[in-house]
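TICKET #2291
ISSUE: user wants both folds in one file
ATTACHMENT 1:
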Amino acid sequence: MSSPIVPPLDTELATRVLVGFLRQEAERAGFGRFVLGLSGGIDSAVSAMLAARAFGPENLIALAMPWRGSHPDSLAHARLVAEAGGFPLEVVDLTAAADGLLGVLPEPDAHRTGNVLARLRMVTLFDRSLADRALVVGTSNKTEVLLGYSTMYGDAASALNPLGDLYKCQVRDLARHLDVPSIVVDKAPSADLWEGQTDEGELGFTYDEADAVLHRLVELRERPEDAAAAGLDEDLVRRIHRRVVRFQFKRSGPIVGKLSQRTVGWEFRYPRDWGT
């Protein structure tokens, strides 16, 4: 169930809205197919289920992109999701590409290796986008976006993102509504970028804790001290608030240095559907 501090999600309404969003935005851009990375995790599973409903499972290209360090469960769970959603799954092994790039980088550690893999996955998806005329669907939820828990030009990159306004606890509710296999819904979230990696272990707090804090800071517009006074852990509130502030740069496009009267991203900001 959703966190008691985050309002319950109307999963049927959310499904209709997000499927309509994917279909409308793709058609506006002249597309009728989608491509996404299916990791075996809950976020990509929910995005895949929504995308399959938008244009039918036959118009969804789902790619599993393991490398030599990936846990075998990730691919097994991706296959379960594809079977449940009725769409095929392609496997693109990134080991050769990753090892080739990592071999010329100066002593990459686990985090840098993870960033290389995340960006290689997105290179693969955007290549298929061009080859098969399919829009890339994102899989980052609102909790991750606010916390900056993503890789720029890696998992943070996409053409359309159906999950970006759903907290992690809401994604879980939507996953159950969409009949995502329970083994995927209930397992510990992980990007599977290095052995033993889990999201919550890396963050240092749980998604439920983060959702409770973020809902007060973002949706209720409370100050950190007010959120703490409401009973949330003061240190946790301040840590999460610092992350939201620190990673603002990840939530916007490249910041353009201003010289003219009509700078892109500042004064020149026409609506996304301008001219359609």
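ATTACHMENT 2:
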Amino acid sequence: MQLPENTLESARQWDAQDPLNAFREQFLIPKVEQTPIVYFTGNSLGLQPRDAGAAVEREMEDWARYGVEGHFHARHPWFSYHERFAAGEASIVGARLEEVVLMNQLTSNLHFLLISFYRPKGKRVKILMEHGPFPSDRYALASQIALHGLDPTECLVEMQPREGEQLLRTDDILAKITELGDELALVLFGGVNYFTGQAFNMEAITAKAHEMGAMAGFDLAHAAGNIPMQLHDWNVDFACWCTYKYLNSGPGSVGGAFVHQRHLKSELPRLAGWWGHDKKTRFQMGPDFSPMQTAEGWQVSNAPVFNMVIHGIALAQFVQAGMERLRTKSLMLTGYAEAIIDQINDKHLAGLQVITPRDPAQRGCQLSIVAPVKGKTIYNRLTERAVSVDWREPSVIRLAPVPMYNSFEDVFRFGQVLKECLGVK
């Protein structure tokens, strides 16, 4: 893969040729003394789309104008508000329209889906998860195991990397699934690990789980809007994600959920609520729950409109940009950042270690760097110099050059500031 030379002129030339460069102007980038910061924390919270404020204001106007009648007479009627986003959401995760729904938030959706897809029986009680997931996943899985009267210390299996390694090998994951065999009820991994940035082979993991008679689900918090996926074709049973990271929909914004088509008309148990009831008879207010025959059947409450409106703006940008074009730019931005870090290490013996997979196919747009000496000091210096990265104990700096709004000049500036922070030229 050809990358820019490590010069400002080369970076600007690449930006000028970038077919996605215009999207940068559609976001509000924080500034320090009128200079946009280098914002590499879209893996924690995406930037605000420039049109978000006006979009929220339009819904406020409709609320003022119509009151309760806005459910049917607003410019985008609230009754069916979430349905507007199904096509865009499906294109991002590789699903069919009926397999996706926007509802609740990430960990809430994980719990809702686990009610349906973690069904321990007999000796088949164990859940396999990755080493070092985002803590909320571990909390959710342990609590679900306990709800079934089982012991999390016995039933929750955390897949460990080999001694001396930071990453999990796909072959080792598949071997562990085989080893657990008929004791395995569920495999639940992150699509991309939040700490290392490793993207897992979801297709292979799903196939092996099914071979062993288990379910396969994924937390896509760091995958949705980051890497292309084909959840339907990979036969993933279920998945959930947030929209406030790569999907740029605002802090605490609505979550997404996927349920494979083959489960939509099944008798899987679920937590029921009125918004999951068949919409043709929902307002008859009958006593018996009749779930919709789509992923919407897992809803319990009506759409949080003021929350969702921003996601609508962000989703339209993703549809226009296209995941394949975003992925192509992502590989170049991340490869450029990696090359700069390697140059600094080679020339100055800086001791920085990229623990994210070197194989671009096994990562998204995040790089996680171990800075064993004065790592927190380096992080603080980057922040003071208007480079927004993120620190994770004990010694990891995470940076995410997001293709929707980051530029090659951003990556060049990061490299220059990193050298300053290290005290090298």
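RESOLUTION: both attachments delivered.
EXTRA DETAIL ON ATTACHMENT 2: The two ends are 27 Å apart (CA to CA).
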